Each structure stands twice: as C-alpha cells, then as structure tokens.
C-alpha cells in the first residue's frame, strides 16, 4: 500500500521537462522511496559434517599484484586451500543518497 501511494504521488508530481524551472523541494520530498530504517539480515548457516579426506594435498592461495588493477565495482576474492571446507560468502550493500 505504501509503495502504491509513492507511485501515485510520483505520477501526480512528475518531474518537469529539462527546459523548465527546477522542481520545488516540497515536490521532491513527495517523490522519494524508501524508509528511515534499514534492516539487513544475512542468513548463512551451512554446515560441514561427516566428511573425510584421505591422501589430499592442499596448495597455496596467491593473488598476484595487479590482479585487481583494472577492476571496478566491489571485487571479491574467495580462496580455499583446505579440505572439507564450507565457504559462505554474502555481501550487503547499503547506499544512502542524501
């Protein structure tokens, strides 16, 4: 219901053409979406049990210099050099524009 109200307000207070005057602060305030409260809930609950590893060789993990030199965004490197290992990875990104 809240989202429908925001959409209705957005349709009623559509932004003007680029050649017209700036939108008033009161109009912009009615066009925002979201809430003041941010709730992040990471649910990673994997398990490793009852496993066996025999005659297993584990190697070294290396990341060479410059591996992320032209990267953009949020580069993530997850490495595992063990046996019977559970890796759970999650990222929460909260962007607030004010």
Description:
The longest helix has 11 residues, at 2-12. By secondary structure, the chain is mainly α. It has helices spanning 2-12, 25-30. It has a domain at 1-36. Helices cover 17% and strands 0% of the residues.
- Mean pLDDT across the residues is 76
Going by helix content, strand content and strand pairing, the class is mainly alpha
Poorly predicted runs of 5 or more residues: 1-11
The major pleated sheet works out as:
none
Oligomer: single chain
User: How many H/I helical runs?
Assistant: 2
Describe the secondary structure blueprint for this structure.
Layout: H1 2-12, H2 25-30
Summary tags:
98 residues; mainly alpha; 2 helices; disordered N terminus
Provide a compact summary of the structure:
With 98 residues, this protein is an all-alpha fold.
